[in-house]
Design brief:
7-stranded mixed β-sheet; alpha/beta; about 300 residues; 11 helices; globular
């Protein structure tokens, strides 16, 4: 099977016409071909998922996680330092949690992609759509939990007229992002910021700008409420979040319920949309988009979209 333009639009929650050029740019490649897991293969995948949930010991926000992130971003930094050209520099920024050649979730099914980088291809298209639809009118874009700077590099490449700043609690992340900007000659920088204690790190936000998070609020777990409240009180014009938003999953579906089991066991944030809806009811923001983006790793759909604007 292959992903059509209309199916891709449904998966991502964008108009098919708006993503037509992005689709056609990649349609000649075999990146969108896949096999759906049926019968015994599907059952075997579900057993793998259940075993993974049962054996998983990782807890989001644990004291050991800081060392894990520092070590991971250090590996990317070394790879970037050794890169010889623009292509290898961008490749060095791909986060290790996007694993090639794996069974993945796609439109309510477990699938085996023909291309080992299907998840990354889809994520790249989604980020381009987000950049064009929600970031292009902002004078400044701030990404919190910027990791390797992979998102900043893509957006800065596609729209270099905007200034981009990444924040992260990892010192190696900040070092990595600033090196990436230098190597790629793109307009972004990075600074240290701890999302768990946002009030402790006063930063200057350009009025009318946009805030973005991509899989970073998920890492805050029970500590997310303070950051969500803080960001909606800052002078941002718009907030864009690509996160595994649990409130958008269908708990009556076995497929989604398995993902929810995994997310809850690890302690991922389960209240992003709930907190934003509460703040919307207080009259401070207006939620303009919420969509369960139906693709991701074997364990979860990590790229659900929530967009809000200040009132």
């Amino acid at each position: 099977m292959s992903i059509s333009c209309s199916t891709l639009a449904d998966i991502m929650g964008f108009d098919a016409y708006g993503l037509r050029d992005l689709y056609l740019d990649r349609a000649h490649k075999p990146h969108f071909d896949y096999d759906v897991q049926r019968k015994h293969a599907k059952e075997a995948t579900i057993v793998r998922v259940l075993k993974r949930i049962d054996s998983d010991t990782q807890r989001i926000g644990g004291n050991d996680r800081y060392k894990v992130w520092e070590s991971g971003w250090e590996e990317n930094y070394v790879a970037l330092s050794n890169s010889k050209d623009r292509e290898s520099s961008l490749a060095a920024l791909v986060p290790a949690y996007i694993r090639p050649g794996q069974i993945m979730r796609l439109n309510g099914e477990y699938v085996k992609p023909k291309s080992k980088w299907l998840e990354l291809e889809l994520y790249s298209i989604l980020r381009s759509l987000v950049g064009e639809s929600y970031l292009s009118d902002a004078p400044h874009v701030y990404e919190f939990g910027a990791g390797t700077g992979y998102n900043l590099a893509l957006w800065a490449k596609e729209n270099p007229a905007i200034q981009y700043t990444g924040f992260d609690f990892s010192r190696n992340s900040v070092k990595l992002i600033n090196l990436a900007a230098q190597k790629l000659c793109l307009p972004f920088t990075a600074e240290y910021f701890n999302m768990v204690e946002p009030e402790m790190g006063p930063i200057a936000i350009e009025p009318g700008s946009a805030i973005v998070t991509c899989g970073s609020i998920e890492q805050l777990g029970e500590n997310s409420h303070k950051f969500v409240d803080w960001m909606t009180r800052m002078p941002f014009k718009r907030g864009v979040h690509l996160e595994p938003v649990m409130e958008l999953y269908d708990s009556s579906s076995l497929f989604d319920y398995l993902a929810l089991m995994f997310l809850k066991k690890r302690g991922y944030t389960d209240s992003l949309l709930t907190d934003l809806e509460r703040i919307e009811n207080e009259g401070r923001i207006r939620i303009v988009k919420k969509h369960h983006t139906k693709f991701g790793s074997m364990m979860m759909d990590g790229y659900c979209i929530v967009v809000w604007e200040t009132v």
